[in-house]
Amino acid sequence: MKLSGVGVWDGWLRYGDPQEVAQAAAELESLGYSALWIPDTGGPVFDAVRNLLAATNEIVVATGILNLWMHEPQAAAAAHAELTQTYGQRFLMGIGVSHAPIVDKAEAGRYQKPLAATASFLDGLDQAQPTVPAESRVLAALGPKMLELARRRTAGVHPYLVTPEHTRIAREALGEGPLVLPEQTVVLAGSRPEARQIGTGWLKGYFGLPNYTNNLLRLGFSQEDIDTISDRVFDAMIAWGDEGAIQARIAEHRAAGADHVTIQVLTAEGVADPREQWRRLAPALV
User: Smallest Cα–Cα separation from 275: which of 21, 15, 7?
Assistant: First the structure.
């Protein structure tokens, strides 16, 4: 599966009213977006994938990510086979280990040895009948060891909450060929105060998760940047401004080696879905 262009990553596509989501998916395809990405924090994720595939004709539908602690490889492989048989090669299985505070909340102490757990899940997909072939799966890889595992055993990586510098690191780690498919959070805003009102609290929630904070430290941010959500770290994590500013950040990812960038649009409090922003951004991005 070769994926290019710009996609949309959004929890509303996963958990919104299925009928409204289906209508939005068809519109996003008509606007020229190349992929739809959905998270997995519990519930029947493959039903949501099916809803998006059924509503569209050519667009790729991807999990960003399939939480490997919540699924058995054989069942995931069976779902992949059924969806692929029905809708063609349009389902990309993004797989990840999630985060210890989330996984351990359901079962204390379960989150251990994330690299080994990921390799074991991939083993299960390989052993399933039918298998999920390497070209149909990517990993949510941030650190060097997970990037190396992705290089050896999948079609590439889907890093979440990253910078163009991380995209460069991922491309160097994977070499030419494997897919680099970063997520980029964006805010359409006319000023820094407006952007920070929308994005600061959202970032604060993620900065409580060690996987992301450790990655930021590797990228050269300080603990103070993280603790205070400094303007430096805010601007690195969230592309904000007008369409031109968002377009420029996408171009940075491409220059760093990204094949495809998927945007997650943050909206003001009380706005359930960002369809207006997706429409506004499409002419500049796709």
Answer: 21
CA distances (Å), origin 66, targets 15, 73, 252, 278: 14, 11, 27, 24
Buried (b) or exposed (e) across 81-94, using 16+ Cβ within 10 A?
Answer: bebbeebeebbbbb
- pTM as predicted: 0.95
Cis, peptide link before residue 130, omega less than 30° from 0: yes
Residue 164 CA to residue 258 CA, distance in Å, equals: 9
67 vs 94: CA distance, rounded Å? 9
Tens-binned pLDDT, residue by residue, of the chain (286 aa):
789 999 999 999 999 999 999 999 999 999 999 999 999 988 899 999 999 999 999 999 999 999 999 999 999 999 999 999 999 999 999 999 987 666 756 777 777 899 999 999 999 999 999 999 999 999 999 999 999 999 999 999 999 999 999 999 999 999 999 999 999 999 999 999 999 999 999 999 999 999 999 999 999 999 999 999 999 999 999 999 999 999 999 999 999 999 999 999 999 876 768 999 999 999 999 8
Terminal alpha carbon distance of the chain = 19
**Burial classification of residue 59, based on how many CB atoms lie within 10 Å of its CB (0-12 exposed, 13-18 middle, 19 or more buried):** buried
